């Protein structure tokens, strides 16, 4: 179609409304536009690439009218002749226009080619397509489509293509014009037909006249996206090709399918009476009711083709369903009682785990409650079937008293009768929001009403969520398969484990299946464990978009101990699902409900082969897949698990995967634990072996490794939590080795040797410890008590402790803890000026004395860490808002739509059906719509709409709403109301008063109330101290949030800054050493003194010392000045230099207190634009001899441009040398040497390449020379690097006599770019979405 003509042809529609470009149909929006480009250039080189508006199946159609073509060509040449040449785009603009060489995207599209959706769309045509774009969707995509029909029209969505990251990227479909409408489907993963020719492309129906689709993707993986066809008032699935679409008589304009013969159903997709039911011998076709086969007594199957009993299995899809689609459900539980299947309940209600104990009672434990923020309960309820009544039990916890009863979800439960006659309920695994994945078994005694958490034997189990379990009463065993679990190294994912738990002996036997999955179902028939469906998705990067929903049918042959994959159900449509239930009754397995993008309410029935149908021994033994039979006395009987197992032939490969003795010897592979280090086949040779798990050593390490979070780890006294690795480890048997004493969480050791402080430090390091920092009262009390005991034995010690002088007035412990005079105190007159290290002299009064670090003390105290427990972290589920949820070191994730905080290892199982619209791990959004201040922010959230005020300047209010208007939630007491309770309230944004409701696009004028618009959308002149394209920020020198009419105010910086942080007003101080939000404080911790409210801050210089100041941190580029002060006793010399020019002013004053000048400040030097300066200030040169208290002030300024432009380490060096009082000078030099010499050292082996000699080294020295030391500064941004260098040796090649020819050289280096790499183990199909913690800014002075 060209020009303004229109053409409809069956399944596609093309429209053209403007002659500037040609729009033609092509095969699919996901295919390339090469043919479109060719068509465009056939008309002329100035024509843009056309936009696809519709699609067809096979061919491109182009129908041209001669008259229209002539008019079009003439019009084109006129345009081309008069138009000025414009720069073309390098790539095609797919959903936008090319302007000056770049793509300007249409509303709702982003990307350099406008190839990604991002925003909201409104569709009003009777039919059409919607897509995320022609290539993979982008990270963090949020797109919303509103399809508007007419009131109560039936709108159908057909998902022709859909591929997203399973469980993380979702498409939500609502039957209405907002997300508060009923949610009818949630699509995620890979949606493709199971069998070609028997396919059912997913189709969703809405009946309100609207459909709202919302797509969200996270920041991990992006796949090809989706193509969805929609149509209004069309027949379901086009009647599947087995009928015709006809207008109905009951409801005006509604259509329905008239099915062909032998097809039925709303979409004519259900075949019936195949092969005429084998009439007349096998059965007949009943056309009066459900239209199905009625088989004779000796025949069965959908078409009456199988005998009774049959040697073949078959699936049946009965037409019976619960009344109403509202009874569709997933994550429910089902149990059979007297041939009646009882089902409880659906998502967002209590998840029940029933098990029959008697003929009349059903017991249910735990699950997730509807009320509250995803609460998980430990409630126990009993349902009496005859009376239809519920009763809550209140059990008591049996011994040991400290046993923890876990409130769990995703668990399973069974009632069992012990050999002793006691009836118990066994609760298997599950997930606890407090204790994470639970690996314990819990037992409830029905008679004594007591709980018990028993210690199990055999294999060490790894508990999880969503496993299947089946109880076999004949053998007293529970078969537990699969699940979603936490794994080592902070990973999580699906597992394929199969455990056999023997209830009487409390023993786990392990067997792997090779089929990982969770939220599947299982049943036990004829000695075979049958597993159906489930979620099989692990990590997208490895599984290439594995389907979330599976129809896999697995069989575990208990007798032969082997897994087999059975044929999938051969029904008229796909039956993929997870979250369903399965029960066994009368020799058949019944599968009910589940989830496959929509909640299901159908029943699938599987009937296995019957052993009685095999008449020969050979046929009986080889009965086939899914059944195990034995030949006994001329008859074929089903094998039972209580019978003897068949012999196994094992190989080492089946044993290698077990890493501990118990799991190695408690499995069905026939393994032995060899030489206490490996698991091999029992038939292999081994020097020292264990074949019975009861003989295995203590297994604390294996038990601790299964505990998934700090809380559960802390419950086990033999375990400790490693916060850095997020793993639980076993405590060593002896936490403190011989010679050490455990005091609290540290090991202490007192030694009586006489050593200097440095030697004492070396002594402790050789013992893998450190000189003791006595920071706790318990440690101090222990040391004082031990010293008093030694005094009574005439062994008086005065040991070194790890306390050192950091600067003139600051003492600190070796572990960087500040010293406080609490448990230990200085003796009178201490610390002395000459002392830089501390020792404990008088234990009776806890007295400390300072001494030069080179002096010797009688004794020393060492410490090292004991195997200590980390402080418990707050469980994620207890956080109630986004800010405290996401502050816990990336361990938690916040879901705003559900108002829940969940552990990042349990996000998938917390929202298995896509209940979370969006999640955050940082950068929290507003908790509700009213917290969003601009229209663009408002419409990014699918639940919000924007009410613009009458000024039409961009001001307004964000509120919950729909396309038709704002919505309001009625206030309910005692519980949170559901989304469906929202009601339309147009009066909140009254149109008759000039307010404008925006739901699809924002109003054109967006100036935040600070300007009117010209040309509809351009802010004319920003007022109220604002600036920016939308008047969205404050002018320099002002701060505040001017969005939506907010105000700006001047920065308050006490004259020490010109600009401040725009949002919070924090000043960027221009003088180094001044800090505080308003530049009101001096950085006293780093030796800056003064009062910025009355003057400025000065760095207090020591005498006879050299200082280097590095201005390399992020905030340093604001500094333009730095000030110094010094108070020498007499004459002094000074020098100062920098990397580039600066201004310098030097003054002196008589009166000064802590940097605040009280007397007159007398200028001495004033220089501008200099690079260095040297001078001498003597009593003879200046007239301050009579003033004993002289303070010099040095002002360095105007250096910001130099420091910024060169990006070098700029240094200001001050060197003061006192010329009088030689004895005082020597004392100060000694103090400096002691301080420098007290740094910790370590030995370094250095290999020298001696000319002319072939030297064999133990190690290879390849690559550039290595430093002999690199001492990192605080923060990890800088370090002091030390190298060994050879001096020039002259012609002889030898150093001068008496010299080594080597020197040690050091330099300050930048190590900020050496970041750790983000490692991901590709071999484990697991997901880890945690970000690395941000690196902190460091300082090195």
Automatic annotation (TrEMBL):
GO MF terms held by the record: carbohydrate binding
Keyword entries, A-Z: Disulfide bond, EGF-like domain, Glycoprotein, Kelch repeat, Laminin EGF-like domain, Lectin, Membrane, Repeat, Signal, Transmembrane, Transmembrane helix
Annotated signal peptide: none
UniProt xrefs under SUPFAM superfamilies: C-type lectin-like, EGF/Laminin, Kelch motif, Spermadhesin, CUB domain
Transmembrane portions of the chain: 60-79, 1192-1216
GO cellular component: Golgi apparatus; membrane
Name of this chain's protein: Attractin like 1
Organism: Myripristis murdjan (pinecone soldierfish)
């Amino acid at each position: 179609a060209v020009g303004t003509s229109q053409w409809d042809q069956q399944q596609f529609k093309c429209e053209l409304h403007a002659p500037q470009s040609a729009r033609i149909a092509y095969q699919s929006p996901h295919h390339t536009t090469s043919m479109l480009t060719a068509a465009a250039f056939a008309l002329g080189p100035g024509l843009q690439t056309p936009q696809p508006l519709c699609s067809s199946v096979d061919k491109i159609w182009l129908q041209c009218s001669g008259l229209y073509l002539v008019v079009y060509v003439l019009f084109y040449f006129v345009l081309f002749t008069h138009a000025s040449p414009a720069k073309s785009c390098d790539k095609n603009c797919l959903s936008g226009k090319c302007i000056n060489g770049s793509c300007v995207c249409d509303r709702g599209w982003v990307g350099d080619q406008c190839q990604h959706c991002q925003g909201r769309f409104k569709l009003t045509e009777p039919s059409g397509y919607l897509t995320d774009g022609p290539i993979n969707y982008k990270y963090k995509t949020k797109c919303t489509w509103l399809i508007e029909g007419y009131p109560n029209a039936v709108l159908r969505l057909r998902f022709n293509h859909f591929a997203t990251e399973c469980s993380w990227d979702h498409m939500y479909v609502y039957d209405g014009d907002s997300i508060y409408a009923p949610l009818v489907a949630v699509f995620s993963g890979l949606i493709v037909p199971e069998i070609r020719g028997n396919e059912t492309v997913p189709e969703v129906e809405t009946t309100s006249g609207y459909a709202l689709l919302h797509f969200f993707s996270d920041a991990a993986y992006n796949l090809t996206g989706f193509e969805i066809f929609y149509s209004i008032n069309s027949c379901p699935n086009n009647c599947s090709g087995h009928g015709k679409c006809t207008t109905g008589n009951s409801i005006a304009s509604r259509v329905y399918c008239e099915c062909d013969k032998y097809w039925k159903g709303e979409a004519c997709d259900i075949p019936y009476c195949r092969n005429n039911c084998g009439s007349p011998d096998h059965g007949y076709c009943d056309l009066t009711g459900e239209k199905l086969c009625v088989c004779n007594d000796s025949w069965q199957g959908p078409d009456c083709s199988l005998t009774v009993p049959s040697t073949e299995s078959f699936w049946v899809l009965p037409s019976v369903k619960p009344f109403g689609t509202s009874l569709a459900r997933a994550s429910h539980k089902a149990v059979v009682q007297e041939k009646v299947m009882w089902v409880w309940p659906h998502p967002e209600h209590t998840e029940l785990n029933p098990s029959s104990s008697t003929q009349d009672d059903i017991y249910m434990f735990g699950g997730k409650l509807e009320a509250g923020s995803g609460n998980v309960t430990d409630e126990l309820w009993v349902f009496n079937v005859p009376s239809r009544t519920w009763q809550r039990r209140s059990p008591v916890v049996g011994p040991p008293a400290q046993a923890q009863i876990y409130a769990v979800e995703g668990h399973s439960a069974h009632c069992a009768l012990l050999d002793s006659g006691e009836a118990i309920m066994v609760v298997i695994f599950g997930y606890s929001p407090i204790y994470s994945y639970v690996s314990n078994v819990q037992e409830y005694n029905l008679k004594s009403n007591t709980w018990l958490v028993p210690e199990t034997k055999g294999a060490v189990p790894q508990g999880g969520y969503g496993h299947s379990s089946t109880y076999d009463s004949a053998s007293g065993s529970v078969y537990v398969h699969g699940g979603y679990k936490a794994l080592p190294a902070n990973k999580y994912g699906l597992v394929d484990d199969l455990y056999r738990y023997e209830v009487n002996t409390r023993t786990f036997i392990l067997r792997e299946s090779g089929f990982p999955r969770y939220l599947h179902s299982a049943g036990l028939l004829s000695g075979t464990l049958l597993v159906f469906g489930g979620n099989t998705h692990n990590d997208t990067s490895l599984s290439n978009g594995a389907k979330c929903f599976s129809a896999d049918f697995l069989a575990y042959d208990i007798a032969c101990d082997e897994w087999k994959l059975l044929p999938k159900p051969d029904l008229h449509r796909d039956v993929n699902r997870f979250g369903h239930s399965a029960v066994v009754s009368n020799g058949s397995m019944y599968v009910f409900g589940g989830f496959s993008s929509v909640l299901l309410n159908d029943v699938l029935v599987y009937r296995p082969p019957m052993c009685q149908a095999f008449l020969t021994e050979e046929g009986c033994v080889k009965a086939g897949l899914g059944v195990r039979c034995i030949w006994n006395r001329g008859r074929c009987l089903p094998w039972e698990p209580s019978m003897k197992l068949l012999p196994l032939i094992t190989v080492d490969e089946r044993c290698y995967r077990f890493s501990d003795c118990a799991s190695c010897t408690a499995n069905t592979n026939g393994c032995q634990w060899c030489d206490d280090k490996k698991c091999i086949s029992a038939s292999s040779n081994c020097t020292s072996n264990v074949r019975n798990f009861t003989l295995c050593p203590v297994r604390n390490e294996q038990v601790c490794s299964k505990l998934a979070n700090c809380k559960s780890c802390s419950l086990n006294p033999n375990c400790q939590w490693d916060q850095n690795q997020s793993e639980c480890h076993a405590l060593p048997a002896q936490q403190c080795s011989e010679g050490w004493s455990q005091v609290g969480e540290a090991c202490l050791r007192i030694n009586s040797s006489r050593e200097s402080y440095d030697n004492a430090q070396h002594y402790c390091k050789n013992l893998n410890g450190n000189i003791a920092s006595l920071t706790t009262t318990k440690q101090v009390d222990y040391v004082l008590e031990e010293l008093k005991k030694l005094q009574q034995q005439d062994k008086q010690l005065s040991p070194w402790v790890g306390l050192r002088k950091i600067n003139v007035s600051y003492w600190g412990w070796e572990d960087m803890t500040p010293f406080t005079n609490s448990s230990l105190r200085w003796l009178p007159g201490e610390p002395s000026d000459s002392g830089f290290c501390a020792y404990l002299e008088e234990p009776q009064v806890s007295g400390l004395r300072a001494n030069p670090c080179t002096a010797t003390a009688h004794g020393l105290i060492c410490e090292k860490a004991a195997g200590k427990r980390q402080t418990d972290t707050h469980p994620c589920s207890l956080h109630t808002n986004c800010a405290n949820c996401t502050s816990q070191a990336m361990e938690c994730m916040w879901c705003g739509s559900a108002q829940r905080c969940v552990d990042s290892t349990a996000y998938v199982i917390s929202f298995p059906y896509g209940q979370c619209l969006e999640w955050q791990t940082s950068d929290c959004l507003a908790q509700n719509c009213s917290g969003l201040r601009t229209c663009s922010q408002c419409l990014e959230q699918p639940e919000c709409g924007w009410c613009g005020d009458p000024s039409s300047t961009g001001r307004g209010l964000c509120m919950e709403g729909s396309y038709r208007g704002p919505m309001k939630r009625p206030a309910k007491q005692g519980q949170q109301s559901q989304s469906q309770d929202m009601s339309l309230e147009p009066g909140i944004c009254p149109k008759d008063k000039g307010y404008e409701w925006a739901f699809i696009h924002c109003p054109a004028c967006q100036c935040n109330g600070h300007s009117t618009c010209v040309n509809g959308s351009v802010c004319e002149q920003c007022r109220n101290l604002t600036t920016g394209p939308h008047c969205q920020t404050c002018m320099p020198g002002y701060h505040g949030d001017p969005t939506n009419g907010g105000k700006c105010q001047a920065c308050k910086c006490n004259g020490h800054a010109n600009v401040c942080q725009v949002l919070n007003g924090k000043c960027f101080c221009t003088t180094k050493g001044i800090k505080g939000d308003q530049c009101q404080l001096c950085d006293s911790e780093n030796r800056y003194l003064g009062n910025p409210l009355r003057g400025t801050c000065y760095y207090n210089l020591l005498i006879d010392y050299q200082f280097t100041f590095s201005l390399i941190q992020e905030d340093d580029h604001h500094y333009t000045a730095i000030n110094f002060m010094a108070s020498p006793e007499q004459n002094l010399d000074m020098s100062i230099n920098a990397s580039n020019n600066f201004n310098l002013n030097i003054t002196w004053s008589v009166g000064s207190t802590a940097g605040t000048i009280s007397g007159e400040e007398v200028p001495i030097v004033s220089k501008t634009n200099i690079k260095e300066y040297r001078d001498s200030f003597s009593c003879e040169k200046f007239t301050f001899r009579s003033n004993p208290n002289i303070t010099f002030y040095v002002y360095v300024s105007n250096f910001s441009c130099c420091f910024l432009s060169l990006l070098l380490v700029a240094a200001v060096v001050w060197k003061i040398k006192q010329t009088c009082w030689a004895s005082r000078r020597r004392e100060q030099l000694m103090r400096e040497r002691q301080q420098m010499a007290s740094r910790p050292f370590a030995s370094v082996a250095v290999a020298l390449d001696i000319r002319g000699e072939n030297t064999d080294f133990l190690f290879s020295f390849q690559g550039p020379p290595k430093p002999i030391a690199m001492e990192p500064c605080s923060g990890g941004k800088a370090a002091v690097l030390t190298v060994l260098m050879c001096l020039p040796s002259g012609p002889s090649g030898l150093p001068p006599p008496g010299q080594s020819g080597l020197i040690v050289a050091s330099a300050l280096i930048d190590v900020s770019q050496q970041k750790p790499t983000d490692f991901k183990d590709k071999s484990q199909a697991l997901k880890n979405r945690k970000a690395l913690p941000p690196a902190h800014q460091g300082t090195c002075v």
